[in-house]
UniProtKB/TrEMBL annotation:
Pfam families (alphabetical): tRNA_edit
Gene3D superfamilies: YbaK/aminoacyl-tRNA synthetase-associated domain (3.90.960.10)
Protein name as annotated: YbaK/EbsC family protein
Domain YbaK/aminoacyl-tRNA synthetase-associated: 48-170
Originating species: Nocardioides bigeumensis
Length: 183
């Protein structure tokens, strides 16, 4: 067996994600359990009061450019609802009104309500991430996230974060990598 070096971030202790299911949302744990590169994914414990990006990056000495946010967007065309999770670097915002709207082929794209996003993803607010989302959702990842050495992103729960090599974000099932998704 080849030893895997886990990514390190700020002053957080990296732990093998699959060895700590208590630090993962159930759907995240299930998705990682069946994904071959999951041994390269780490999890870090954080104070749940610091789960929001700005507070977390400051408290744990994490560069904002290493942090990725996942927002859930919805739109409709001909009565068909289209949902997408958009992953962008934390120092950018998802281009919902242009690129996301055009990619989903909808007239208007808006953020999915927090209640729906958490209920349908089965993840806590502040922990939604592209691992373990509903199969019907599209997953759009900004190309700049793929270039992050170790992206820190939600883990499905507020009391931890995943550390995942950016290149692995592009290898998640169903991911579509887009240039300029974050602006």
């Amino acid at each position: 067996m080849v030893a895997v070096t886990l990514p390190r971030m700020g002053n957080l202790e990296s732990l093998p994600a699959l060895d700590h299911p208590d630090l993962l949302g159930p759907t995240v744990h299930a998705a990682l359990s069946s994904w071959a590169p999951a041994d390269r994914v780490a999890v870090v414990r954080i104070d749940p009061e610091l789960a929001d990006t700005a507070a977390m990056t400051e408290a744990y000495d994490v560069p904002l450019e290493s942090s990725a946010n996942c927002v859930v967007v919805v739109g409709a065309r001909s009565g068909e609802e289209r949902v997408a999770a958009c992953v962008v670097r934390a120092d950018t915002r998802a281009d919902v009104n242009n690129l996301v709207r055009k990619t989903l082929d909808v007239r208007k794209a808006t953020f999915l309500s927090m209640d729906r996003a958490t209920a349908e993803s089965q993840m806590e607010y502040g922990g939604i991430n592209p691992v373990g989302l509903p199969a019907a959702w599209r997953v759009l990842v900004d190309a700049r996230c793929v270039a992050i050495e170790a992206a820190i992103i939600g883990s499905g729960v507020r009391h931890s974060k995943l550390l995942i090599p950016g290149e692995l974000l592009a290898e998640l099932p169903g991911v579509e990598v887009l240039d300029d998704l974050g602006r």
